[in-house]
Amino acid sequence: MLVTGGNRGIGLAIAEAFAALGDQVAVTYRRDADLVPDGILPIQCDVTSTEDVDALFTTVEEKHGPVEVLVSNAGITEDGLIMRMSDDAWSSVLDANLTAAFRVARRASRNMLKARSGRMIFIASITAYTGLPGQVNYAASKSGLIGLSRSLAREFAPRGVTANLVLPGFVETEMTAKLPEARQKEIEGLIPLGRYGHAAEIAGAVTYLASDVAAYVTGSVLTVDGGASMGH
What we know:
With 232 residues, this protein is of the alpha/beta class. The protein has helices spanning 9-20, 50-64, 87-115, 127-130, 136-156, 174-177, 181-188, 199-210; strands spanning 2-3, 25-29, 40-44, 69-72, 118-123, 161-168, 221-224. The protein has one domain (2-224): NAD(P)-binding Rossmann-like Domain (Rossmann fold, 3-Layer(aba) Sandwich). The longest helix has 29 residues, at 87-115. The protein starts with a strand and ends in an 8-residue tail after the last strand.
């Protein structure tokens, strides 16, 4: 199985969860390959490059065989109010978060459709539903993943390949740890469960969608956010 952006944070937690189940796991990284633990195959890849993505899958196929589970997790942020947001800030986030998911899904589908089996799982964000000031590019990219995954679910269903989406809420990561304490408390107040999520809880949702018991689940959006976006 393959996790893009799997060398840190939520992506790494997902990779470690699959490795603990005994799966052969590969992850992509752009920097900091040393963060990937032994037993997980790190592959440097720029997911905004079609050539890099093709080379990525070729390497995984040579070392582990065809990718049976794809977790598209890689993404970036480049925040700013829309009046000050450049075209580059918009297009770079859409390319890394949405178009890259299209690239890896297209390449993964080659073997999955032949095998008439496979799982595609896309990691989005509750900002796809709620929006967030200063993140118009990020929220748009994550909303786009809903349409992408559901279209693929319909396209691939006759071949036994599923496509689903996980929407994490506020999760304890390096990024959220850098927020001022007052802001962290403010965010906690918006979450009915009153706490941030853990990366392992997101990983649990992903391993479920990849499991045999989820064979009848496709085109679904699984929200893991402590209730923060309920009603959407």
